[in-house]
Amino acid sequence: MSTRHRGHRPLIAGAAVVAAVLLMAGCGESEQERQAARSASSASEAAASSAAAAASSAAAQSSAAAASSAAAAAVAAAEASRSAAAQALASAAQSSRDADASRAVAAEQQSQDAAAAAAGSAAEAAAAAAAAGGPNADPDTPGEDDDSRCENNPQYADEQPIGMRADAAAAYVAAAAAANAQGILMCLADGKRSRAQQQATYDEYVIQYGQGMADLYVLPPEKSAHVQGLAVDVQPYAAYAWLEGTRGALGWCRIYDNEAWHFEYSLSFTTAGCPARLPHPGA
Known about the structure:
Blueprint: H1 3-6, H2 9-27, H3 31-131, E1 149-150, E2 153-157, H4 166-181, E3 187-190, H5 195-209, H6 211-217, E4 231-235, H7 237-245, E5 252-254, E6 262-265, H8 269-272
Antiparallel strand pairs: 1-2, 3-4, 4-6, 5-6
């Protein structure tokens, strides 16, 4: 063996001694110390896990809060949209109502203008006939009685104002035209009667209803405005209600409380208005 190899032995022996010392030191560690080390390690791991869980929970809460805020914003936006839509619908409905009201006012004005024009024509025709000094109606001339029926309302008769005094006939034609201009159909249920026709009507009422009732609705020939050619019975209800509403402007006035359909003519009604009504013809 050469001297070079022997020179390394002290180094190897020293390393062995150090290793032995370290081993002995490790072997000298007590069981309590090892358990303490393991406990410390477990506590450190638990703390790290708890910290991670807390961070995860905080992130989840933050995300939930953000989602809740976004949802609330979406609900508010939807509510604002519904409110705007409702306001738009209300505005459109109001505009439609305003337009309808404007059209109604315009139509009413046109109707009034037409009625005024017809009333003027009636007054002019009546005045012209009166000025011409035409004769009074012949009391023995009968009115038309050919069973002609009212247009669109055939339950009522519709005579022509034949045999009436000229100014009254002209005024009736003008009144019917004025009513028609406002969409009112006026039918002449009864106009001129002769003395014989009036007497026959009176006698019929006496037979059917008795003398007392006849005197409430039918006058004897010498007192009847129908015989004089100055009275009309108009139908249907809308027509006589409308004519009463003219308050004499067309020359026609309702005379009796119990006969809403009976009107009599006088040129004076166009300026003085209608006289106070009587309760019935026999009053």
